[in-house]
Specification:
The chain is mainly α and 188 residues long. It is built from seven helices and no strands. It is 78% helix and 0% strand. Helix 1 runs antiparallel to helix 2, helix 3 runs antiparallel to helix 6 and helix 4 packs antiparallel against helix 5.
Amino acid sequence: MRKSLQTLGLSVFIVIALIIIGIGLLPGMNTWISVVAAAILLTIPFINKRITSKRFVAWKEDLSVGIDSIDDDHKKLLTLINNLETAVHYPTGEAFERQALQELVDYTKYHFEREEKMMRETGYTDYEPHKQQHDAMIAKVGGFMEAYEKDREGTVEELAEFLKDWLLKHIAGTDQKYTGHLQSHNIQ
């Protein structure tokens, strides 16, 4: 319901803005109203980009751990986070939302298993604390998933924000610590 209201509100805003702009441009570009209308028209894409750029994440090289297979996993996780953000903020339907959420959770678990296997096989000394962070995150997501089943709309936005924040901080922080170790074992 909340997404529908947001979409309706945005649609009403756009229609009103277009009407005002249209009225402002009717007398031609000779009046101050026309100039203001044109300025509003030109700023709408920038405002939209600014609003949506906060919701979505993009890969940045400072997130790289220097291991191609893990970086590829991280890029895929960011894509899946963006899919979930799309489901959260746009009326895509419950099926798309559930699919986006489940794909993100499943791929996160898959990635953690791959990463942990690399750490175990190479004798990474901080394996246990790293795995504990993974386990704690999966447990917290499990709680969110239970809450999601009871209150889908009330939970999904909070869950998406948690996943985005946690994964970005984990990739930029904890994951950076194993880079040298895994590279010294020729892990790519």
